[in-house]
From TrEMBL:
Lineage: Bacteria, Pseudomonadati, Pseudomonadota, Alphaproteobacteria, Sphingomonadales
Family membership: Belongs to the adrenodoxin/putidaredoxin family.
Gene3D superfamilies documented for this protein: 3.10.20.30
Organism annotation: Sphingobium chungbukense
Protein name per the record: Ferredoxin
A GO MF label: electron transfer activity
Cofactor(s) annotated in UniProt: [2Fe-2S] cluster
This protein's record includes keyword Metal-binding: yes
Annotated GO biological process: P450-containing electron transport chain
Domain of life of the organism encoding this protein: Bacteria
Domain annotation 2Fe-2S ferredoxin-type: ranges: 2-104
Keywords, comma-separated and alphabetical: 2Fe-2S, Iron, Iron-sulfur, Metal-binding
Amino acid sequence: PQLIVVNRAGDETPVDAREGASVMEAIRDNGFDELLAMCGGCCSCATCHVFVDEAWLAATGAPGEDENDLLDSSDHRSAHSRLSCQIVMSSALDGLRIVIAPED
Ligand code: FES
């Protein structure tokens, strides 16, 4: 599936994501260096914060409880906030557009 990544400069880039990999992995593996993803995807650092496009909120679902708590610690929390390591790419998410959140 394809993922559309908008970096902090506002540049939009389509990248190929592996089905079953997280959005965080897809972003990182495609050479973006804005996502620190310090904990490596185990939902404990919140440095993989992204905003999900309005049109994709229903498909990606709500954050889990731990994820939600971590997101609350961000100054940039919004109704579109997710930790990208907690979104798993699938064909249902083909075309998903996300914006990398500003650094906290
Ligand atoms: Fe640490 Fe997502 S990579 S919470």
